[in-house]
């Protein structure tokens, strides 16, 4: 393009326009996930009411659009996908039979003045704004929990685990994503009637995910304000539930292991500094329904003596349950 292009997310405020000089590239991310996900383009110097709007999720080669007379001629927009990144290509389009126009000195001087003004408006790029992306993909992950005895009491198995973290996306934005297609938690205590503590009700294919978590964080340099523009949690898409089977001896064994760990040793309790609870601001909270079916079996003979006191008999009577539905 002979003239700079201004771009932003649609329905933005007046000063949300960003400048794209000729023969240049710039990264872009949604300013507000609650607004429409459309990219708005405007040739510098044209009427803002005639801006162009495009859906970047739709991969296509758009027809050339006549913007105005002069050196801009027709605007050609092409949206392609390179791996996981959407690329919007903006270029001039002229008929092959028409010779390429030559810019006059008047246009050249006006363009140089525009670029000079835009460069003064834009803040210098900081070295801390460099983009950083890391993705970890594991076909299968197993974690064993061993207590002080030592004896294995818990085993966690995860299939097709994907962890992704991105930072330096502009405006202090960072993103974290987690997804998995298989999850199972096993009770490793010997002779337990419920060896599987947690598992999905239905087995999904390797291409589907039973759990997805996404969080966008925005750092503003303040310790008393935490901003999360987007938090999303999605369970199985086929409305399947997670089965939870709890045997009472496992609860007491886990409680004993936690007491032996003594988490208070991990932080200094002698500090005199006053802590202030931060203000948490969430832009969009997108949580789908996650269903559980809980089964629990009490075992009074394996219960530590004197733990529940008067409530022991009541807990034995009311604690037994089978496939109790719980929805979040």
Chart the SSEs and their pairings.
Elements: E1 5-9, E2 18-20, E3 39-43, E4 52-54, E5 60-61, E6 65-66, E7 74-82, E8 85-93, H1 105-121, E9 132-146, E10 152-167, E11 173-180, E12 182-187, E13 196-200, E14 211-218, E15 225-234, E16 242-247, H2 248-261, E17 279-287, E18 291-297, H3 312-319, E19 321-327
Parallel strand pairs: 15-17, 16-18
Antiparallel strand pairs: 1-2, 1-3, 3-4, 5-7, 6-7, 7-8, 9-10, 10-11, 10-12, 11-14, 12-13, 13-16, 14-15, 18-19
Q: Residue share in helices?
A: 10-25%
What is the total domain count?
2
% residues in beta strands: 35-45%
Structural class of the secondary structure composition? mainly beta
Arithmetic mean pLDDT = 76
Total helical elements: 3
Element-by-element helix/strand order: EEEEEEEEHEEEEEEEEHEEHE
How would you describe the overall organization of this protein?
The protein has 2 domains: 5-122, no CATH class; 128-263 and 276-327. It has helices at 105-121, 248-261, 312-319, and strands at residues 5-9, 18-20, 39-43, 52-54, 60-61, 65-66, 74-82, 85-93, 132-146, 152-167, 173-180, 182-187, 196-200, 211-218, 225-234, 242-247, 279-287, 291-297, 321-327. It is built from 3 helices and 19 strands. The chain is elongated, with a radius of gyration of 29 Å.
Brief overview:
This protein is mostly beta strands and 328 residues long.
